[in-house]
Amino acid sequence: MTGRRAFVLRVLAGPAAFAVVRAAPLAGLAPEAHLALGVYAWTVAWWVTTPVPWAVTSFLPFVILPLAGVMPFSDVADSYGHVILPYLMGVMLFGHAFQKHGLAKRIALAALCVPGVARSGTGLIFTILVVSAVMSAAVSDLAVIVMMTPVALSLTRSVAAGATRMSAAACLAVLYGAAAGGLATPAGIVFNALTLSLLEQLTSYSVSFVQWTSTGVLLAAAHFPVCYLILRLMLPPEVRAIPDARKRFLKERERLGPMSRGERNVLFVLILMLVLWTLPTVAEIGFLDIWYVPPVAMVLLFLLPVDAKRTAMTLRVRDFQEGVAWNMLYLVLGGMALADILTTLGTIEWLAGLLTGSVTAGALPWVAGLATPLLTQLTSGTATSIMVSTILFPIADALGYNAAILARIIAGTAQAVAFPWSSPASAATFAFGAVGFGTMFRVGLVATVLTSIIVIALSMTLVPALQAFSMG
C-alpha cells in the first residue's frame, strides 16, 4: 500500500506542477506560452520524481501540446530533430567499444607501469585520479568508473589487504578523476554537448571543439591538486611505501598479451576523431563541425572487422542495443525539444525579460555555479543543465554577458558526487561497496564546494582570456 501511495504521489506531482503554473497570474505571457510553461513544469516534476522513465516523460509535449491546440503534432516533432541525437549516440557507442575491447585497462596499466609513478599509497591514489581523468576526456564518466574501479580496487587490495581507507580513496579517485576529465572535451560528459547545443540554440554564441578543450584541459588540471589533497587529508592511505608496485603492474599488463585487432580499431577511431575535431583550426571545411565527428566514428566501428573471415566487426548489432543509454539519450533530446518549443512560443523571451531587471550580469556566473550543483543533488545533472541553461542563457544574451562562460560553469558543476543517488556515476561507485554513505557524503560535499568555486572562478577568467567562443 505504501509503495502504491508513493507511486500515485509521484504521478500526481506532474499534473500538480502543471496546474500551479496554469493558475499563476503571469502578466504579459501569451496563453500558448503559458501552457507551454506548464508542460515544462510537468516534465521537470516527472524527471525528478520518475513515475515513468525519463525517456517516456520527454515525450509529454507530443501528448499535451497538440491536445491543447497549441502546436500541431508535426511542429512538435520538428523540435525533436536535433543534431545532438546522432552526436550522443556516436559518443556512447565509442565509449562502449573502448570498454568492450579492453583498451581502457591497457591504457590504465601502461600509466601505472611508468617508473616512479606509484611507489606509495598516496602516489597510487594520485595516479588513479589522473588516469581516470585522461580516459574520461574521451568516453563517458560512467564508462570510466565501470572500467577503472575494479582495476583500482584490485590494485589497492593486492598492495595491502584490509586497507579500507585506501580502497575508499581509490574508488573516489576514480569518481573525481572521471568528473574532472569530463570537463576537458565535449565528448567527456553529456552535460558538455547539452550546454553547447543550448548555447547555439538560445544565444548568439557558439564554441568549437578546440575552444572548449583549450579551457577544459586547464579546468581538469586544476581539479587534480584539490581532489588529491582532499583524499589525502580526509582518507589518508594506511600504506605509505609500495616497493614492488611496478613489478605487480608489469605482471598484470603482461597478462593482457599483445594488442588485439579490436583494440587497434578503437585506437584508430579515437585518433581519427581527434584529428577531425582539430582540423577546422588549420583548414576551413564547411561540413566539419563539432557535431559531425561522432556519427563518423559510429559508422566506422560497425564496419571495421576484428575477424574478416567470420564478418565479425568491432561493434555488432547487439552492441547498438547495449552501448547506448537510451533513457539518458531521450532525456537530453526531450530537454532540447522543450527549449525549442519554449523559444518558439515566446516563453523564454518573456522569462528573460522578467528576470533581466532583477539579476545583474556580474551575478550570473555565481547564480549558475551555485544553483547547478545544488539542484543536481535533487534531480539528474542532465535535467538540471537543461533547466538552468534554458533560463540563464537568454538572460545573459539580453544583458550582453558572455553566455559561453555560463556554459562552462553549468557543465562543470552539474556532476553530483556527494550522494549515491545523485548520478549514475555516483551510484556505480557506491555499488562497488568500498565507499560507505557517510564517507561519500562527507568527502563529496567538500569536493563539490571546492571544485565548484574553481570552475566558476577559472571559467570567468579563461573563457575570455583564451577567446574560447565565437559570435554568431
3D architecture notes:
The chain has 472 residues and is mostly helical. The strands form two sheets. It has a two-stranded antiparallel ribbon with strand order 1-4. A two-stranded antiparallel ribbon has the order 2-3. The radius of gyration is 23 Å and the shape is globular.
What are its keywords?
two-stranded antiparallel ribbon; 71% helix; mainly alpha
List the helices and strands and how they pair.
Blueprint: H1 2-23, H2 31-49, H3 54-57, H4 60-67, H5 73-79, H6 84-100, H7 103-112, H8 121-136, H9 141-159, H10 164-181, H11 190-202, E1 205-206, H12 209-234, H13 245-256, H14 261-278, H15 293-303, E2 305-307, E3 312-313, H16 317-322, H17 326-344, H18 347-356, H19 364-376, H20 381-399, H21 403-413, H22 424-431, H23 437-465, E4 470-471
Content of β-strand: under 5%
Strand order of the largest sheet: 1-4
Main β-sheet, in a few words? 2 strands, antiparallel
Low-confidence stretches: none
Oligomer: single chain
> Tally the helices: what do you get?
23
Using the alpha-carbon principal axes, give the shape. globular
Mean of residue pLDDT values: 85
Overall radius of gyration: 23 Å
What class, by secondary structure content? mainly alpha
Quick structural summary:
By secondary structure, the protein is an all-alpha fold.
